[in-house]
Amino acid sequence: MLEELHRWVGGARLASCLLCLFALGCSEKAGTEVTPLDAYCPIDAAEVEARIDALLDALTLEEKASLMHGVQIIPVDGTWQSTSIPKNGIPGFHMLDGPKGVGVSSLLAGANGANTTAFPVAVARSATWNPELETRVGAAIGQEARAVGADTLLAPGMNIIWHPLSGRNQEYYGEDPFLAGEIGVAFVRGVQSMGVIANAKHYTANHIEDTRLDVNVNIDERTLRENFLPQFRRVVEEGGVGSVMTAYNQVNGSYCGEHSMLLGDILKGEWGFSGFVVSDFLWGTHNTVPSALAGLDLEMQIANVYGQPVVDAVNTGELDMANVDDHVRRILRAQFCFELDSNPPVLDDSKLETEETLALAREVATKSIVLLRNEAEFLPLSKTKAESIVLVGPLADAENLGDTVGSSAVMPSEVVTIAEGLLARTDLASTIEHVPGDLGDLDDQAKVSAADVVIVVVGLTDEDESEGQTRPPAPMLGGGDRDGYGLPMDDAAFLANVLSLNSKVVVVLIGGSAIDMSPWFEDTEAVLMAWSPGVQGGHAVADVLFGDAHPSGRAPMSFPASIEDLQAFPRMALDVTYDRYHGYQRLDKNGVAPFIPFGFGLSYTMFTYDSLTANTQSVGQDGVVTLRLSLSNTGTRAGVETVQVYAGAISPMVDLPVRKLVGFAQVRLDAGDGTTVELEVPVRELAYYEEGEGWVVGPGLYKLEAGPHVADLPTSVEVQVR
Ligand code: BGC
Q1: What is the pLDDT of residues 523-557, one digit of tens each?
Q2: What is the count of structural domains for the chain?
Q3: pLDDT at site 11
Q4: Given 241, 320, 402, 561, which residue has the most CB atoms within 10 angstroms?
């Protein structure tokens, strides 16, 4: 796999990018200067462009227009395809979802019914804060995509988590654009190392599921630039992502699929994107000429507004041929640069659900678990002390894969449930009994009361949160946006019942987003957020509960104390205006304490932070600050810590976030060991966006703070920006 990675990323760039993975903030641009086209195209870009020039001369207008749309609503031979023209050597695209694995089973997808690896959902993977791991996940998904015949993967989901109640949060990498950018770039590199085109979606502000096809999201330009675009920019500029998908919704009065500022000015203009823009499927296009003029290159999954109307618009002079040629050029560039013609995917069952992909799914799930509470070191549970452990809860024997009805659905052949993962442990002195059902039976209640430890698995399923709205006659997919911030009512009642029977309770939470724990948190001994942990989730939970793995996940989103601490979630809105701040920046700004802060996660050991220093007291606008701090493991077990660095201006002249994440580094330390952690923060990370001016770093004093999460930053240093 590494050899392939070399082929696609290039030796020198790979070396620099692997070094960058942990000392974050470094840019892919370090090293040889490349033009955007060379950076996009892993093979000889000039040769590809010459080949396209010749084709643009040879193809008729009708043929060109045909290349700009998909061919059928139902997947053909298991993938969604765009037009191919074999006589001219044009292969077309063969697409499949998605964000947690290759989508083969949903209502919409196909892939010949193959089974593929269901990884933990994207939000879980961002909880690992581990880009290197995410590159491996991307490569594994890319490999499976090729093995079922797909050359284009409809992932990663690059929207940030704007609000805990959005139905598709599980498909995104947390609330912070910096974290999402780091993990997203890593995923894209992995996928594309396999010769598969990645697709950054849904560009942009796709956060409300229930009205996603219509809602108009008003966002002032500064908020848009600072909160909703940076992570897309990074997958374009640093990840070299092959394609971008427009969102269904409108932004500031224009559908994203015909948004000339988002597509033409920013994506293709400012960011120099050389790839192609595809519409979100079936309902993502509205008008032929505005879409073509704005920069939508490909309409999926059939010709609703492209096709003959494009031909007509050229014939009437509403569109000129140069516009059509640019769309076709981008489509062909992706197909040729990624060698879809000369090195097409080959069906190969032996590359699906391999030992390696399953082991990787387990590793990721283990590393994504966030330990939220651990009273008096209740966990890890002992492997040598004989105790009676009872496992209960509606999700204890569920598959817990997250969305199983929307486009991110994946169908693995076998899922290790939490019950199976725990019961598979034959190395324990304790006995584990799974008591299924609702505990209505008196014998079952007695078992729970008598247990030394009760493990309860509760949380969200795709009836509570998922992709949702479609246009009739297509059915609603899943539950869409969430009804509320708490546990579903039945789960809450179940948990209350368990807590009334026994106080030695460990809660394992399932879900793709923050959940209100305030009604019951204090009554438990321990709480783990296991997210939707994927095909090996049961083993991962057991690994963490019994201390075979160290809990190293960190919350990639805030869990507010009250949902009212955030902007109201406008579930049914057709028009909404986003506030300036969301997530931890909003809570910080309003001086409101979160229930679980962004970046938080307990560990089975203790880390101590010592004096942060900077290599300079004063730095220019183009500079980079090198930070150092000493980190010690002062506990009794080995562990992994994620050092987080936040920056804020001390006396800003304009409204700025109190602090924002600008870097992180992950370190594994044995008990008693210490190390010096070094991170680089480019000054440009301190910039804000000023309308009419662009990105500005205000001169003045900045505070750089380091610690284990946004609400605990024990050490800081001040640096003057000139
Ligand atoms: C979803 C996309 C997905 C596409 C194809 C749409 O409804 O919003 O995320 O890639 O369907 O499945």
Answers
A1: 999 999 999 999 999 999 999 999 999 999 999 99
A2: 3
A3: 27
A4: 402
Q: Tens of pLDDT along 243-262?
A: 999 999 999 999 999 999 99
**This model's pTM is above 0.85:** yes
Catalytic residue among 97, 210, 280, 403: 280
pLDDT above 80 for 3: no
Residues 432 and 293 in one domain: no
598 lies in some domain: no
**Residues 565 and 707 grouped into a single domain:** no
Q: Which domain holds residue 707?
A: 607-721
Burial per residue of 184-211, b for 16 or more beta-carbon CB atoms within 10 angstroms, e otherwise: bbbbbbbbbbbbbbbbbbbbbbbbbbbb
Same domain, 294 and 373: no
Q: Are both 15 and 55 inside the same structural domain?
A: yes
Helix H or strand E encompassing 125: helix 122-126
Are both 392 and 276 inside the same structural domain?
Answer: no
Is there a single domain that holds both residue 552 and residue 621? no
Cα of 697 vs centre of ligand 1, distance in Å, is 37
Q: What would the DSSP string read from start to end of 127-189?
A: TTT-HHHHHHHHHHHHHHHHHTT-SEEE--B------TT-TTGGGS--S-HHHHHHHHHHHHH
Closest CA to 639 of 672, 604, 674: 604
Token code pair at residue 125: 């993977």
Let me know if 444 is a catalytic residue: no
Q: Model confidence at 112, in pLDDT bands (50, 70, 90)?
A: low
Distance CA 128, CA 175 (A): 14
Confidence of residue 280 (pLDDT cuts 50, 70, 90): very high
- Domain end, chosen from 549, 565, 590, is at 590
Q: What is the pLDDT of residues 8-38, one digit of tens each?
A: 232 222 223 333 333 333 333 334 566 788 8
Site to substitute for ligand 1 among 256, 281, 283, most atoms within 8 A of C-beta: 281
Same domain, 238 and 278: yes
Q: Looking at the CA of residue 97, tell me the nearest atom of ligand 1.
A: 10
Q: Whose alpha carbon is nearest atom 7 of ligand 1?
A: 281
Residues touching ligand 1 (Cβ under 6 Å) are: 97-98, 108, 154, 201, 280-281, 407
CA of residue 453 to ligand 1 center, whole Å: 42
Q: Is residue 600 part of a domain?
A: no
